[in-house]
Amino acid sequence: MTPKGVIISDTLWCFSVGGRRQQRFKNRSMGVTPDIQSAFRALADPTRRQILVHLSQRDMTIAQIVDEFPVSRNAVKKHLTALEEGQLIRVESRGRERLNKLEPVGLKFVADWFKYFDHFWDEKLNSLKQVIEQSEKQ
Amino acid sequence: MMSKSTMKKTVFFNASPDVVWKYLTEKDKLALWFHPAESDLVAGQPYALVGADSGDKMCWGEVVSMNEPESMVWTFTIQPLSGAMTKVTWELEESHGGTRLTLTHDGIGEAAQAAALGLLTALDAGWDEHFAQLRTAATSGG
C-alpha cells in the first residue's frame, strides 16, 4: 500500500518477462524495505498528507504551515515530527528560519530507480552484445 | 543533481555501426534483445515495446530524432513511472573495426519524483473518495 510497495511490485512485474537471469534481480529487489513502517505511519494521517502536498510546491516554515491548517501550532509540530521520522521531510535552518522541505519520498525512490535502470540497461545491453556478436559470427 | 539524474553506459561491439543500428531500430531485431516493437522505429513517431507473451506495453515514448547510423534520441518511460518521461540518447561511433555504443539516460531523478508525487496525490484522491462514500453512507443510513 505504501508508494514504495507499489513501485516494488511494478518492478517485479517489469522483470517478470524473461528467464533465469531476470529471476536473480527479482530476488534482489525484494529485499528493499527500509524504514517503511515509519513512512507508512506518517502517511496514514490526512493532515500530514496535505502538509506534504503543500511542501511539494514550496518549502515552508512552521508558521506558514499553521496558517494553512485549522489546527494548533503544537499539532502541526507533532505532524512535522512524524513526517521527519518517516523521512518524508527534513528541516533546514536558514538564518533564523527553520524551513521544512520535502525529502522527496523521492530521494529514496531516486536511489531505487537508479539501481533499477542500472540493472535494466546492463541486462539489455548484455543481451544486445550477445545477440549481435553471435549473429555476426554466422 | 545532474549526476544523480543521468546514467551513462558504454558497450563495444564487434560489428559495424550499420549493423548495430538495425538492432536498435528494427522491430524484429529489437525483439531479440529488448522487447518486440509494434513497428520499426521512425523519427518523429511514437514507439512502443511490448511484452513478448502478454502484448502489454513495457516501454514507450517517441523517437525524437534519428541520425543513421550515428545517433538517436528517444523519450522513454516504463509502466511503473506513471507516465513520467525520461530521455534516452544512443550514440554509435566506429572504433577499432567495431562500434562503441554509448547510452545516456537523462531525467531519472525528476521522473522518479514526479512518479512519487503522483502516487501521493493519487493516495489523497483515494482517501477523499473513501470519505465521501462514508459520509453518504452515514447520512443516508441516518
Average pLDDT over all residues of chain B: 82
Series of H and E elements of chain B: HEHHEEEEEH
Under CATH, the topology of the largest domain in chain B can be stated as: Alpha-D-Glucose-1,6-Bisphosphate, Chain A, domain 4
Instruction: Please state the CA-atom Rg of chain B, rounded to the nearest Å.
Output: 21 Å
Overall CATH architecture of the largest domain in chain B: 2-Layer Sandwich
Name the largest protein-protein interface in this structure: A-B, 37 and 41 residues
Mean pLDDT of chain A: 70
**Widest sheet: strand ordering of chain A:** 1-2
The CATH class name of the largest domain in chain B reads: Alpha Beta
| Molecular shape of chain A | elongated
Class of the largest domain in chain A in CATH?
A: Mainly Alpha
Descriptive report:
The complex is a heterodimer of chains A (138) and B (142). Chain A has helices at 3-15, 20-29, 36-43, 46-57, 62-68, 73-85, 105-137, and strands at residues 89-94, 97-102. Chain A is mainly alpha-helical and 138 residues long. A two-stranded antiparallel ribbon of chain A has the order 1-2. Chain A is elongated and about 75 Å long. Chain B is of the alpha+beta class. Chain B folds into 2 domains: 8-106, Alpha-D-Glucose-1,6-Bisphosphate, Chain A, domain 4; 108-142. Chain B has 4 helices and 6 strands. Chain B has helices at 2-5, 17-25, 27-33, 108-141; strands at 7-13, 46-50, 57-67, 71-78, 86-95, 98-106. In chain B, strands 1-6-5-4-3-2 form a 6-stranded antiparallel β-sheet. In chain B, helix 2 (17-25) packs across helix 3. In chain B, 27% of the residues are buried. The mean pLDDT of chain B is 82. Classes of the chains: A mainly alpha (138), B alpha+beta (142).
Nutshell version of this structure?
Chain A has 138 residues and is mainly α. Chain A contains 7 helices and 2 strands, in the order H-H-H-H-H-H-E-E-H.
